[in-house]
Write a structure and sequence with these properties.
Layout (H helix, E strand, L loop, with lengths): L1 H6 L12 H25 L6 H12 L8 H22 L3 H17 L10 H8 L7 H22 L9
Helix pairs in contact: 2-3, 2-7, 3-7, 4-5, 4-6, 4-7, 5-6
Length: 168
Amino acid sequence: MNVIKKLRGEGSALPPKPSIRNIVLAGIGGFITIAILAGLNASLVATLILGSFGASCVLVFGFPDAPFSQPRNVVAGHFLSSLIGLLCLTLFGAEWWSVSIAVGLAISLMMLTRTVHPPAGSNPVIVFLAQPGWDFLYLPTLSGAVIIILIALVYNNISRKERYPKYW
């Protein structure tokens, strides 16, 4: 019965609504970033975009002060999660249980290294679906995450009075 009561939640109020300015700026930041990644993706004939990068944009432009949005978390979180995905795929093959192990290990490793970036938690699943080679670590994972951060550094420091990042 206690679990049923917990499912009702605490009854806390919703978080405050962001200002229209912040909402618009976050949307523009995400648009610019994905446009650049998609444009480079098309012109370089190299994969530079992952589905998880859209969620990364939500964090770095919508919530740039959050720990999950800091450069160290974005870059290392994506890299470590893709690495774990590739290791598990290589060692265990594409099995339902091996992708589960990969996601669990990615979460644990991000927590251990203090580089948690929630969108990166989907990278092992992406690895198992696409079954890429080891170059996936660099194109698109590392290069795409670095491009996101480079854009976020410029955009967030131009569009806001607060500094970005909070830490490296």
